[in-house]
Amino acid sequence: MTFRAPVQDIRFALDEIAAMDGLKASGAFPELSEDLTTAILDEAAKFANDVLAPLNRTGDQQGCTLKDGEVTTPDGFKDAYAKYVEGGWQGLQFPAEAGGMGLPRVLGMAVMEMMQSANMAFSLGPMLTNSAIEALLVNGTDEQKALYLPRIITGEWSSTMQLTEPQAGSDVGLLKTKAEPNDDGSWSITGQKIYITWGEHDCAENIIHPVLARTPDAPEGTKGISLFLIPKFLPDANGNPGERNAIKAIGLEHKMGIHGSPTCVMQMENAKGWLIGPELGGMAAMFIMMNSARLAVGVQGVGIAERAYQHALAYAQERRQGRAPDAEGPAPHPIIEHPDVRRMLATMKAKTEAARAICYLCAVSADEAEHEESEEDRAFAKRREEFLTPIAKAWATDVGVEVSSLGIQIHGGMGFIEETGAAQHYRDARIAPIYEGTNGIQAIDLIGRKLSMGGGAALKELLEDIRQTVEDCATSSNPELPQLAKRLKPAADAFETAAKWLMTREDRSDALAGATEFLALSGDVIGGWLLCIGAVAAQRRLKEGQGDQDYAESRIEIARFYAETVLSQAPGKLDSIRVGYEGLPDDLALGIS
Amino acid sequence: MTFRAPVQDIRFALDEIAAMDGLKASGAFPELSEDLTTAILDEAAKFANDVLAPLNRTGDQQGCTLKDGEVTTPDGFKDAYAKYVEGGWQGLQFPAEAGGMGLPRVLGMAVMEMMQSANMAFSLGPMLTNSAIEALLVNGTDEQKALYLPRIITGEWSSTMQLTEPQAGSDVGLLKTKAEPNDDGSWSITGQKIYITWGEHDCAENIIHPVLARTPDAPEGTKGISLFLIPKFLPDANGNPGERNAIKAIGLEHKMGIHGSPTCVMQMENAKGWLIGPELGGMAAMFIMMNSARLAVGVQGVGIAERAYQHALAYAQERRQGRAPDAEGPAPHPIIEHPDVRRMLATMKAKTEAARAICYLCAVSADEAEHEESEEDRAFAKRREEFLTPIAKAWATDVGVEVSSLGIQIHGGMGFIEETGAAQHYRDARIAPIYEGTNGIQAIDLIGRKLSMGGGAALKELLEDIRQTVEDCATSSNPELPQLAKRLKPAADAFETAAKWLMTREDRSDALAGATEFLALSGDVIGGWLLCIGAVAAQRRLKEGQGDQDYAESRIEIARFYAETVLSQAPGKLDSIRVGYEGLPDDLALGIS
User: Fold this and answer.
1) Per the domain annotation, does B117 fall within a domain?
2) Cα(A549)–Cα(B439) distance, integer angstroms
3) Is the pTM of this model over 0.90?
4) What is the CATH number of the domain that holds B277?
5) Most Cβ neighbours (<10 Å): which of B51, B307, B361, B504?
6) By the 8 A CB rule, do B547 and B467 touch?
7) Closest by CA position to A348, among listed A309, A392, A294
């Protein structure tokens, strides 16, 4: 099946939903223009379609191999990586003064989405390198920046993120990797890390490892953690890869999916490293990487959903079975004509677009949080970014799983056969709700920190904006739009009611018992809101006769389907969120004797 | 992880929810007694726990191989199959006069559930053999019965079900396999069948293939189909395997899961076969096999959900991460103490039990439909069996997928690593919503044929029974039970409203557009109703001080959790069901230009 990056949908989300253009006003992106955006999206689409997508299935079949500490990636990955470096893609969203292209993060996310659609296993590598660049930009010393950034921002050197240890997963404070100071200001780090994505590979000439470790006499838990930079090859006097450092891959995980991505067990034996940020400041430094990675993982969810959708859509047009009541021409009809199959496709399409909208709005908010002129605007944007990040990560990755499962279902028996490729999307998609903080951790972050942040300011601002969209829809001259308002309003009310219930629990466990369900509701409602914003914009285009009129119509139709099928269910979810800790079965009821 | 068949839960579902005991009154099961049930469930549990479960992971890793038309199953499968035959399990639910044990089908389903939990890939074989036995019992000639049944009912000979061809999946009427009459009353069958489960293997000395084919001058479509019996080895004069027939496996599918089950491409070149039932009566004969298989696939959903639950429960008790607000003892606490994880486990447990209850009630109804004394009672039971069959198949298999996905999530990163085993459940579970009629086909059957059957009689009778349970709960002396009534009543109302809306659509496409969502609602409500029946029974046990009192309490607690989190959402799903054909996006909105 031929993948084609959905440039039109991405552009619509950038222009009309996330309002990327508004970033120009800050003056931070002098290069940003309509033409440049077009050129970048078109080039990225070519790279995704022609270079990455053809390696997706073979990468899954071949997987990676480890021999004598060296990892070999699947055929073609090395060449594709060279083209990635050559295209300058890694630096797209980073400042020009650091060697990047100085474009908004949201544009980088759009490019990343196409890459993830085309080849999730490959694109995980560049995705994590982005996170390390963020960490260095914020916390690196001038010397570190000068030494590392130019090589990492080109992608010539790649990067990882080394947090997890066997006993320390979601509870990162339990990690045991130790750092001892050397006389020259460097540190000697010893320990083992697991689940290290692209921890070792043959695509880049050097790999930079940000590693969380514990310094001598550090307090227990997360307060005792520091972040270190450990290069695979120590840069020599000219900044070129020199002596091999004592960090190596000692195992590759045998995973259900993303076989093309080497997931390594990494061993450090007095590996040489340097602090990134202050000693004991590891958690804050980690969260800089983590936040970027969380949003990017959400974008993976969008990417894999888009890929699965295209796959299923093509099959549903081609496969003929049965007689569809409203179809033209002789039976058997293409299965897309069967209402049940069409509905599955519609659900896939609508949820993918809602997830994309949430991720892009989150990315634009991150851009604004950095670059808006006034402190007030930056603070507003920061709150929105922080509120949306766990939703973007968890909701979009759950959509990735749901949509790829529907993709299998549309394929029928062919969906379960590996040759078809639909199964790979399903296997690949399943990791995204787990890594970079499980979706449960996201939900706990949302109800714990994000709801109460600034006295509930982010929630209040969001509700105001949603209600503005209700108003915009309700007063539209297009009779379709007031129908959207009728669905969005009660959904927003339910979202508010649920949020307030959670915020007013005396016993934290009562709120925690409904955290995941609240996050799901939040995504449902915010995703629907953003599709409604798209519908309002589409109506403007229709009224002004601007652009592709059929496409504008389709924006309204997708929003309507989502409103009728997803938003309509929002009020009914309230009681399930409010079940409380006492509503959970005890050990006996779970069958523990 | 050690699997232990959930004998107590199964027994409760048999005794208190499906009311298996009521079958005694018909006189059809003279052997059925409490002691025999206990003995059978205990023996079956041993077989599942000790023989089948240990082969599950190795079966997945090794898979099957095909060489020169011969399939080799994974190590241990052959021995396990011999033990299965030795135990007489295959004949459990078949009449004594045919060589079976003459016990109810529902008891057979209970045994099958344990086997599917323990090893889904293995147990698929025996499951399909059951279906062929049904077909022979109903449609076989006396001669066929005498020749084949004694060998199949012991499991010495296994059986398949050969329907699908590349162009004929859900639309079985498109099949092309041809049957030409021979002079001796036999037929010569030529064609290719795909997705043939256990089509060839090394466990049984002969394989009996029921095959759908087209006779000369047969009309097009499903009306032109006949069912043939094609043995791998033609029985000789003594009924022993004789000459090799011209039917062979020419390929094995490379599947996402159930690797231990050989899924064959079967080629017939003038294979010798005999009609089962009348010429052109293939569809009716197929549905006899199919109905039995559909319920059995639902039971697979229950089985894999149970397995995934036990796996996740064990991990959640052992894995320690973070500080849980209400946990005792020093952190890190077992993750089961985190409300979010406990809720996932509770959802897994409650939905698994609801799915079990639906399947067992369906099986008891099938028993009653055959054996009740009065024609009226048999007709009532038949309607209920037919109404519940698509729900048992589709809802329970969707639960299998959902629960195994939650199982992965609870394992965190470990869930995505194949060594853990959680991933296998997820991969295995995904086939069940597809085969034996996709879940979409089940939904179409439910809203098309089953809702309107007998002027809506099955629905009406079901609603009456549900409302009786509402009444029983509402008037209970245990204050927990009226809370159940408060959730069950509006859920039943929503179920009724949705059903009536679907039944009154003039345009069939309007109903079809909501079919899958209606089936989901039906399962949610019926599953909840049955858990409430269990709660009423548990309250009786509490009042009478009968049996394990903690266990009785737990029945009420699980019902309450289900009611608060699942039933509470039922009314909110109405509008999504009533979206109608016009509510589905058109081709343009789906991105087809």
Assistant:
1) yes
2) 37
3) yes
4) 2.40.110.20
5) B307
6) no
7) A309
Q: Does the beta-carbon distance from B440 to A344 stay under 8 Å?
A: yes
User: How large is the ipTM?
Assistant: 0.98
Q: Side chain identity at B476, as an amino acid letter?
A: S
φ, ψ of residue B66 to 5 degrees: the values are: -120, 125
- Which residue, A216, A246, A281, sits at the end of a domain? A281
Structural tokens at position B199 = 């089509």
Smallest Cα distance from B503 to chain A, Å: 16
What distance in Å separates residue A50's CA from the closest CA in chain B? 21
Report the C-alpha gap between A421 and A416 in whole angstroms: 9
A436 is catalytic: yes
What is the tally of helices (H) and strands (E) in chain A? 19, 11
Q: What are phi and psi of B479, to 5 degrees?
A: -65, -15
Q: Rounded to an integer, what distance in angstroms lies between the CA atom of residue B481 and that of residue B487?
A: 10
3-state helix, strand, coil in chain A (%, to 5): 60, 10, 25
Residues 356-395 of chain A whose Cβ lies under 8 A from any Cβ of chain B: none
Q: What is the distance in angstroms between the Cα of A253 and the nearest Cα belonging to chain B?
A: 7
| Confidence at B291, pLDDT banded by 50, 70, 90 | confident
Residues of B in contact with A581 (CB under 8 A): 326, 339
The C-alpha atoms of residue B71 and residue B266 are separated, in whole angstroms, by 12
Q: Are both A75 and A192 inside the same structural domain? A: no
What is the end-to-end Cα distance of chain A in Å, rounded? 51
Q: Which two tokens stand for residue B418?
A: 């194949």
A559 touches chain B (CB under 8 A): no
Q: Are residues B141 and B24 in the same domain?
A: yes
Catalytic residue among A34, A353, A436, A496: A436
- CB-neighbour burial class of residue A496 (10 A; exposed 0-12, middle 13-18, buried 19+): middle
Whether residues A322 and B430 touch (CB distance < 8 A) is answered with no
| Residues B456 and B573 placed together within one structural domain of the fold | yes
pLDDT tens-place string over residues A30-56 = 999 999 999 999 999 999 999 999 999
Q: Which amino acid is at A52?
A: L
CB contact under 8 A, B513 and A343: yes
Report whether pLDDT(B1) > 80.
no
Share of chain B above pLDDT 70, in %: 100
Of B332, B346, B581, the CB nearest to A171: B332
Among B residues 5-44, those touching chain A with beta carbons less than 8 Å apart: 6, 9
DSSP H or E run through B179:
strand B178-181
Interface residue B588 vs chain A (CB under 8 A): yes
In a domain, A178, yes or no: yes
Q: Is B312 inside a domain boundary? A: no
Asked if B56 and B180 sit in the same domain, the reply is no
Q: How confident is the model at residue A546 (pLDDT cuts 50, 70, 90)?
A: very high
Range of the domain at B199: 159-283
Q: Which of B451, B343, B585 is nearest to A344 (CA)?
A: B585
Q: What angle do CA B279, B285, B287 make, to 5 degrees?
A: 145
Q: How confident is the model at residue A541 (pLDDT cuts 50, 70, 90)?
A: very high
- Mean pLDDT (chain A) is 97
Distance CA(A554)–CA(A539), nearest Å, equals: 10
Inter-chain contact B325–A557, Cβ cutoff 8 Å? no
Show the CA angle centred on residue A29, arms to residues A28 and A30, nearest 5°: 105
Active centre residues of B (catalytic): 436
**A349 contacts B590? CB cut-off 8 A:** yes
CB contact B164 to A (< 8 Å): yes
Which of B96, B131, B153 represents a domain boundary (last residue)?
B153
Contact flag A583-B573 (C-beta cutoff 8 Å): no
Alpha carbons B181 and A179: distance in angstroms, whole number: 82
The CATH number that applies at residue A25 is 1.10.540.10
State whether A434 and B571 contact (CB < 8 Å): no
Residues facing A226 on adjacent strands: A213
